[in-house]
Amino acid sequence: MEPAASSTLEKALKRHSRPQFPTVPPRALQLPRSSLIQSSPSWIPPVPRPPAKARLASAVRSRRIARHVDWEDFTRLGALTQAQCSQLICQPKHGSPSLFMFKKLHTDTAFKHIFDMQHPCIVMAHHLIRSPDVQYVGFEYYRFTLEEVISIHLSMQEAHLYPIAKAIFSALQFLHEHGLVHGHVSTHSIRLCGRTGKVLLGDCEKSQSESSDDHNIDLDQLGLSILKCMEAQPQSSRTADEVRSERATNKVFGLSDAERWSDAKQLIDFLEDLFSLQRSRTLKLERPHDYINANIANDEILLPLIELASLECFTMWQTE
User: Fold this and answer.
1) What is the pTM of this model?
2) What is the assigned CATH class of domain 144-313?
3) Where in this protein does the record put region Disordered (predicted)?
4) DSSP string covering 22-73, please?
């Protein structure tokens, strides 16, 4: 009985053939890691990066879609008017107690990209209410604009400007990666959170596909917004060409109190790069100036200025 049992056991535990893979030769194990890397085949092609349009389409599939809602789902608290733009402030009747700012948009093309823009420095859209003539898009609630913050009696310092420049530059990098140009960067479209001081770029529903005619528009507008913050008393609007002309005559971008910024070398160099025509927009965004990674200050430094804006600035508010 023992031979038969042994035969059955061997049959049950019989090894099955499986593909054999080449093993690393002993000599290779003794080589330093650097030589192994250098000896790797140089003919292996890099993984191709999909074009911007394809990346955006791929991102759309992995992100949430707009939540179609009705006015019955919200309590309308009132209308907030800033820079002649009125937005309805609403609170959901069920679920999250968060507030949303509903903006009226007249065409489908005006917001076809907005629900795909999920970035920490962009005001995101969450809800969509359709009607026969117009559509209302519900954005995250960020009450203050940069225009209000620079209108208080205190002047901004270099440390206040850093989180603004870094956040908006990051948002523009995101738009550029997806083949979009904002075209409306200003102290009115830049928003701030009253609780954390976080800086975000709004009005991204106005973004358009990049073209050869856009040149340096977003970076010029960012530079003009920063210069407006640097003025103790913001002047009337200037163009990027006027700023470049003033810089060419050895003026610090035409600032009225240039001496106050004499120690802000990194900031001045960053502005120089924003307005420069020597480097392309693509190169500036993909290889940013060292100022962007300087870690000079964080968002919280803006909180005292935001609090003063709530006390000193008049904003038109109409209750429902």
Assistant:
1) 0.78
2) mainly alpha
3) 1-26
4) PPPPHHHHTS-HHHHHHTS-TTPPPPPPPPHHHHHHHHHHHSPPPEE--GGG
